[in-house]
């Protein structure tokens, strides 16, 4: 199996449940792994298309990390139909909550 990955795609977007998040915005990171079957010649997944897909989804309005993970995953599965699995992890860096938390993360792989 061949895996094409992009890690720590950095985004700033006004997404979140709280009103101040829509004003101040949040920093996000996204990791993507696209697993492809072994074949000759090997199929490939264009890194640029992966990054463009993630950015396109984040440019749409939304609140929940789960929605972004699902929408990115669905778009990538459609873009790379030969993929065996696609894994998407979305992290909100420094989420607005009491205490010190590095990030909140939601992952989906199928």
Automatic annotation (TrEMBL):
Gene3D superfamilies found in the cross-reference section: 3.30.1130.10
GO terms under biological process: folic acid-containing compound metabolic process
Gene Ontology molecular functions: dihydroneopterin aldolase activity
Domain Dihydroneopterin aldolase/epimerase: 4-110
InterPro entries: FolB_dom, GTP-CH-I_C/QueF
Highest taxon of source: Bacteria
SMART domains reported for this sequence: FolB (SM00905)
SUPFAM superfamilies from the UniProt entry: Tetrahydrobiopterin biosynthesis enzymes-like
Protein known as: Dihydroneopterin aldolase/epimerase domain-containing protein
Organism name: Flavipsychrobacter stenotrophus
């Amino acid at each position: 199996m061949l895996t094409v990955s992009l890690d720590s795609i950095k985004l700033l977007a006004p997404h979140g449940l709280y009103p101040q998040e829509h004003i101040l915005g949040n920093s996000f990171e996204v990791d993507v792994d696209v697993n492809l079957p072994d074949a000759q010649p090997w199929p490939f997944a264009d890194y640029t298309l992966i990054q463009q897909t993630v950015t396109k989804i984040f440019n749409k309005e939304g609140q929940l990390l789960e929605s972004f993970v699902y929408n990115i995953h669905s778009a990538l599965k459609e873009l790379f139909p030969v993929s065996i699995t696609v894994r998407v992890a979305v992290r909100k860096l420094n989420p607005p909550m009491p205490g010190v938390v590095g990030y909140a993360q939601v992952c989906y792989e199928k």
